[in-house]
Design goal:
single chain, about 325 residues, alpha+beta, H-NOX domain, Arc Repressor Mutant, subunit A, 2 domains, 5-stranded mixed β-sheet, 17 helices, 5 strands, globular, disordered N terminus, transcription regulation, Helix-turn-helix domain-containing protein, transcription, HTH_AraC, DNA-binding
């Protein structure tokens, strides 16, 4: 099972588009990526590149409901070893817990928080990468894919009880009714999916304790290798992006990474980086995404980037880009 590495999200997209007669070059247009590049160099696309890929797919297929369709086409095997582990678990609860533990083995374009409240199972979708106008696609794909995977694992229906969505109601909700078949609330403050908590006890049809133990061991091995191989600067950036508004000091970040502050400084120097440079680069990238893909005000963006005043944020942005906030937003609109 050593070769059952998880299939990357981009690999999945390229394969599904190829089945529609759309080549990789057209899907990757404008991203700076080429087919095979990521496997060769062990790289992962950045969120803006994923956003471009999604926009390309929507335009090339002319299917506004592509997210739902791709979710239906997703298979357990697309998760690699993580899928085989899920397929051999005893119950859906065991499968979900293992997936949550090792979800970092697969690429994601948003994060989710699962919790139980008042006897109901909630999954909240966080737009940590500020996908903006493609967030609808991402949510539709996630919910559709969840239905597909849970149903294939248990060989029984997996109902959605409610959907709470931050985006406006589409003109045609028929695809929602067909696929999700539940009450749907648009223009909400959060993206929330409500599942039937009783489904967690559904048995997995191909449960096998020995295979599950072996697959879980393989997942841990891959996760440990991933932790060893990843650059410290990438770990820091991922933490900053996944915790909007939280920009810890170097000492606080060192504590989060369970290493000493001096060790953190030294290892960043070895990577030709500094903590301040990572903070500035991350803030700059996030600021550009917020300006280009959201309607947030400069004050709101500054707050999310850890600035106590909008004037400090304006000065920092000017120093990073030699542009004003207004100029950057107008340039994208044009």
């Amino acid at each position: 099972m050593n070769d059952l590495k998880p299939t990357g999200k981009l690999d999945f997209y390229l394969a599904r588009m190829a089945s529609r007669g759309i080549g990789a070059e057209r899907v990757l247009a404008g991203t700076g990526l080429r087919a095979g590049q990521l496997q060769e160099h062990g790289l992962q696309p950045h969120p803006p590149q994923y956003r471009r890929v999604i926009l390309n797919m929507l335009e090339l297929t002319r299917n506004p409901w592509l997210g739902i369709a791709l979710g239906e086409e997703f298979r357990v095997s697309d998760l690699g070893i993580l899928g085989y582990a899920a397929l051999s678990a005893s119950t859906l609860k065991d499968s979900r817990e293992l997936y949550d533990r090792y979800r970092g083995l697969n690429e994601h374009i948003f994060s989710t928080t699962n919790y139980i409240k008042h006897g109901r199972w909630f999954s909240e979708i966080h737009d940590v990468y500020r996908l903006g106008d493609v967030m609808r696609f991402a949510v539709e794909e996630f919910v559709s894919q969840t239905i597909q995977l849970a149903s294939s694992l248990t060989n029984r229906p997996f109902p959605i009880l409610e959907l709470h969505l931050t985006f406006p109601q589409p003109a045609d909700v028929t695809p929602y009714i067909r696929r999700f078949n539940c009450p749907i609330y648009f223009n909400q403050s959060r993206n929330l999916v409500v599942f039937d908590i009783n489904r967690l006890q559904d048995p997995i049809s191909l449960a096998n304790p020995e295979v599950f133990k072996l697959c879980a061991s393989q997942c841990e091995m891959l996760a440990a290798r991933q932790r060893r191989d990843v650059r410290l600067s990438e770990l820091i950036r991922d933490h900053l992006v996944n915790h909007p508004g939280d920009f810890p000091t170097l000492e606080e970040m060192a504590g989060h990474l369970n290493i000493g502050a001096r060790t953190l400084r030294r290892r960043l120097v070895d990577e030709d980086q500094s903590y301040q440079k990572i903070l500035d680069d991350t803030r700059k990238d996030l600021a550009m995404q917020y300006l280009q893909h959201t309607a947030l005000t400069p004050k709101e963006i500054g707050y999310m980037l850890g600035y106590s005043s909008v004037s400090n944020f304006r000065r920092a942005f000017k120093a990073w880009t030699n542009q004003t906030l207004s100029d950057a937003r107008l340039a994208h609109a044009a």
